[in-house]
Write a structure and sequence with these properties.
By secondary structure, this protein is an alpha/beta fold. Helices cover 47% and strands 16% of the residues. The longest helix has 29 residues, at 92-120.
Length: 272
Amino acid sequence: MTQKNWLITGCSSGFGRAIAEAALAAGQRVIATARDVRSIADLERAGSCEVMALDITEADSVREVIAAAGALDVIVNNAGYGLIGAVEECSDEQIRRSMETNFFGPLNVIRAALPMLREQKSGHILNISAAAAISNYPGFGIYGGAKAALEMMSESLRLELAALGIQVTLVQPGPFRTDFIARGLEKAAGEIADYAGSARKFATFLETVNGKQPGDPVRAAEAIVKMVLDGQAPLRLPLGKYVVKKMRDKAAALTREVEQWGEVAVNTDFPS
């Protein structure tokens, strides 16, 4: 098996750590990053791993880390966090920070790495998305919006890079038993009573399922690493039964909308 060089963001916990550990177990070389390197220092004892401090929202820092990393084969944009609250309840600062981390952060990493990837005419970029980007929930408007922006950018990026030998995959996990809800979910700055039955209800639901999610992050990480090492690069890699059903439900909903509004739609063209 060919050893690849991986750069993984957000390795302090959750998917980032699980992917780093799975890649190391598969004999890969890993550069594991986190804002606080103390949280990932133990990974250096797990094989061919180097840890680096990285705040993906700082473009200059990202460029420095990419330059120091050397040749890279796989880039995993995992770092991110959730923001729960109705669109009206979230503060301006919370909204901008969510977009900076969940969209502009991965974009910083990709743009810093592209000159090197284009020169070597190879590479695989994996962007961790979310079920909220397939179809969204009340209370996840900002978080899901940032992930949807990441998805649309990735679709275009895949087409731009295909002829250059660089692959792009969106990883779409459902509910997995990570600490995303307990540690990676920020609450809106304010509460408005009118959203008690929508956004607040969804927030309560998330709290009740925490620790009971059906997804196993270790198995997910192993599936991701196997996909890469097998040379596969789907546009989307769904993870978990929940997401498989969600994708099918979304496809069916889109079909129903086209059937209902298709005649109206085609009649808006100039007569042929």
